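// run 5 | inverse folding | seed 20
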């Protein structure tokens, strides 16, 4: 396989709270023979700002993202929601500015940005990454990865190739976990009700581990599981695929 220079966009949530996901991406890609670059100037993509109506701040962070990642051949992020921000929301924000040069730059960088499972399956054309994870696992497809990026069964194809895994289907898998960024704060009761259904379905699988491609959703689900002392762990897809 041709060696690819891949630039990691780790996201602010992973960098601050779940650095293991970012480290797992690097370990996995280097094990597959690729070079991984990490621009130290990267910050938030602006998703939080855009979702809460702070458009000027979101545009400023978009401009920074374009500048920081301008030299990247391929950009990968262990976050469906942040990949969705770059690919789906950035073009809309750029059009609102009326800046033609910015619109062109955003279009170019969006075309080079991938969520991890997309990069592995579509760009690197690999599903068996040599992972070993001997646990009973269920997979939660996060809303942005499913509805914005349309990653389909790519994560499941990767998980099915993991040695030793006991992958069990999650009932009503496509239903939201209730996080939705600031939605969980502004609509706490509704968020909790949605999470309760998700936790019920997770527990019905008797899985040891819940896997997803977004740390934000795993944080929300993991919090619900911890409060119930359910004994079920949450693990990012990247960490499963990096496991040996």
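// decoded
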């Amino acid at each position: 396989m041709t060696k690819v220079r891949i630039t990691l966009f780790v996201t602010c949530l992973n960098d601050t709270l779940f650095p293991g996901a970012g480290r797992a991406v690097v370990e996995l890609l280097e094990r597959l023979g690729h070079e991984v670059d990490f621009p130290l100037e990267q910050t938030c993509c602006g998703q939080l700002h855009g979702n809460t109506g702070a458009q000027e701040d979101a545009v400023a962070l978009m401009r920074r993202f374009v500048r920081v990642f301008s030299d990247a051949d391929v950009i990968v992020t262990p976050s469906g929601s942040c990949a969705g921000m770059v690919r789906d929301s950035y073009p809309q924000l750029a059009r609102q500015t009326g800046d033609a040069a910015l619109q062109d730059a955003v279009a170019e960088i969006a075309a080079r940005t991938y969520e991890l499972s997309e990069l592995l399956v579509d760009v690197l054309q690999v599903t068996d990454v040599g992972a070993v994870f001997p646990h009973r696992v269920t997979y939660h497809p996060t809303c942005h990865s499913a509805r914005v990026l349309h990653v389909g069964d790519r994560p499941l194809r990767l998980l099915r190739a993991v040695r030793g895994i006991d992958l069990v289907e999650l009932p009503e898998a496509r239903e939201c976990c209730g996080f939705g960024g600031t939605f969980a704060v502004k609509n706490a009761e509704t968020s909790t009700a949605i999470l309760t259904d998700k936790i019920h379905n997770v527990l019905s699988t008797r899985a040891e581990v819940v896997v997803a491609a977004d740390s934000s959703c795993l944080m929300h689900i993991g919090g619900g599981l911890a409060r119930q002392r359910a004994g079920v762990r949450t693990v990012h897809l990247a960490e499963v695929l990096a496991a040996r």
